[in-house]
Amino acid sequence: MKKAFLRVIVGVLLIAVCHGSSCDSDSNPPPPPDSVSITIGELIDCTGPGSPAGIAFHYALRDVMRYYREERGIPSRKLKSIAYDTKYDHTRELPGYEWCREHGASLVVSAFLGDVELLKPYAARDKVAIATMGTTAAQLEPPGWIFAFSVPTDAGMKTLMKWISDQHRDYSQGIPKIGTAGWSEPSYQEMEQATRQYCQAHSDEFDYVGGFSAPVGTTTWESEVDALKEADYVGLMAPAAASFIQEFQGSGYTATFIGLSSLTRFQGFVTDMCGWEALDGTLSAQGTLWWNESVPIVDLAKKLLQEYRPDEAEETVQAGSGYVDAIQRMMAVLEVLEQAIEEEGMADFDGQAFYDAATKYATTSPIWQGYPEWAFTETKHFLMDHLVIYEFSAEAQDLVRVSDWLPLATD
User: What's the pLDDT tens digit per position in 8-50?
Assistant: First the structure.
């Protein structure tokens, strides 16, 4: 499986680099948009350390757009996408945003957390809506032109810790120690802050060891592993999780690893690096149902894979939740887009039209069967306010769902 996964990653990277239709960049700009087309700009990592999940998202975005063109009635020439490779370098977020805007995008989709909050004033200036797939408090407060199609990192981590306290930890063994480690980026920084805050508010549930960060791309963790060697739970973000787990367990230490949706987006990469035994018992809290669930969105993801990418379907599923996660989120984005077109018309669609439609959007269509009902409002610009928890199972060689839908914790 490892060799198959690596072959797929190498193959899609070559496609992304060589073909502008797969991953356009500033060195390969698309033709100018026509006056009645809608252009979606995509900020995506096609060639950096986030590419195993980034490329899956990249393909899912295009597949959902194709599905909408072929089955939902938006003519193909009216709906376009362009992509800018951020290379998982957050300093490329703003140049990428500007490039997308210059090439006609009135809606920009950011596949990774990045520094999207830095784009907030530019989006407001230009009236360009940003749909982000990773959520931090700075993006949302005060509400602006960023709409988050994901569980907020802060609330997600606190909800996971509350569930661990209520359902997972045996307190006859004492108060568990908890800490975090990861790359110095917004997603990890908010995870670390949420963990620390929860421990401060619930000192009878967890003993906080500390949070430890390293530059993006770090693969050696000697000091961080030593600092966390007595922890019972260690919070991690993939892809950095893979090298940390290897070094932590290689040093003879044990803990339950916990995290949010990045762990399952990079599931194939992490399990290839570490093995299922090393991941056994790892907990992931997320707003996306896994491949083994039978609900319309998961079924749609499988259908699109088989119809549009049959040669890559098996490996895409093995790679993790990146594709099905992106199908779910992009279905919500396209439903907002569809609603905006119905209200304003194709010719008059712009960032303001998406903004107005988003603030009235709720997940009420049949595709959302099996999910809670979620909604944006004028003041609530994140969509998902529930999550589910999955456990990595070495016995099943799969993820096993261990919770119902949980409302997000408020403290």
Answer: 343 343 333 323 334 544 334 454 544 567 899 999 888 887 7
Residue 44, token pair as written in the block = 């995506």
User: What's the domain range around 374?
Assistant: 2-151+292-386
Within 13 Å, how many C-alpha atoms sit on residue 386's CB side? Answer: 15
Structure-block tokens of residue 388: 């589910």
Spatial CB neighbours of 116, under 8 Å, sequence gap ≥ 6: 93, 110, 130, 132, 134, 136, 139, 146
Which residues lie below 8 Å from residue 127, measured CB to CB, with a gap of 6+?
106, 145, 350, 351, 352, 355
Number of structural domains in the chain: 2
Residues 61 and 159 in one domain: no
Q: Does residue 341 sit in the same domain as residue 396? A: no
Cβ distance 59 to 309 under 8 Å?
A: yes
Residue 112 has a pLDDT of 66
**pTM tops 0.70:** yes
Residue 125, sorted as left (phi over 0), alpha (psi -120 to 50) or beta, turns out to be alpha
Average pLDDT over residues 363-367: 96
List CB contacts of 303: < 8 A, sequence separation 6 or more. Answer: none
Handedness of CA 195, 196, 201, 204 (dihedral sign): positive
Amino acid present at 335: E
